[in-house]
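Please decode residue identities from the backbone states below.
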């Protein structure tokens, strides 16, 4: 009776952890990609976009470029969280595998109804494969859904 209660507490804790991990995408802060459109028609694209009141800083080929906002017509940015979302999906998958392992107690029932022990190495390899697949799916989903957004527009 105590082991079932303990097992249910562990599973509940893991479920809460997975929900928090999935929703962590909105909490974490990542550097963004930026496109700058100048008044003279020049366009540049860089990483680590940062805006201040009078200037913007963008990293181009490893060097920070500070540009006055008065020279810019429009700035577009991407959040660039695709790796973060992939990590969250992989962490959730690993949590599910750990929860299933703890819930089963290391034992399973085969197709003939016989109770057998789960081979830990085989379970670990299967978990690693599915965690990798989950990372790739999360990365692609966020990569496709991360659109360019206008963060600065000079109308004057």
């Amino acid at each position: 009776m105590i082991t079932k209660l303990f097992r249910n507490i562990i599973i509940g804790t893991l479920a809460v952890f997975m929900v928090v991990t999935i929703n962590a995408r909105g909490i974490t802060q990542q550097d963004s990609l930026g496109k700058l459109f100048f008044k003279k028609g020049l366009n540049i694209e860089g990483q680590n976009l940062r805006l201040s009141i009078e200037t913007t800083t963008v990293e181009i080929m490893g060097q920070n470029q500070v540009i006055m906002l008065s020279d810019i017509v429009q700035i577009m940015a991407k959040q660039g969280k695709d790796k973060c979302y992939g990590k969250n999906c992989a962490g959730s998958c690993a949590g599910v595998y750990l929860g299933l392992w703890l819930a089963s107690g290391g034992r399973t029932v085969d197709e003939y109804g016989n109770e057998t022990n789960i081979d830990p190495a085989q379970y670990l390899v299967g978990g690693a494969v599915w965690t990798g697949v989950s990372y790739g799916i999360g990365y692609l989903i966020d990569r496709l859904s991360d659109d360019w957004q206008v963060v600065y527009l000079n109308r004057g």
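Observation: Residues 24-31 have pLDDT under 50 and may be disordered.
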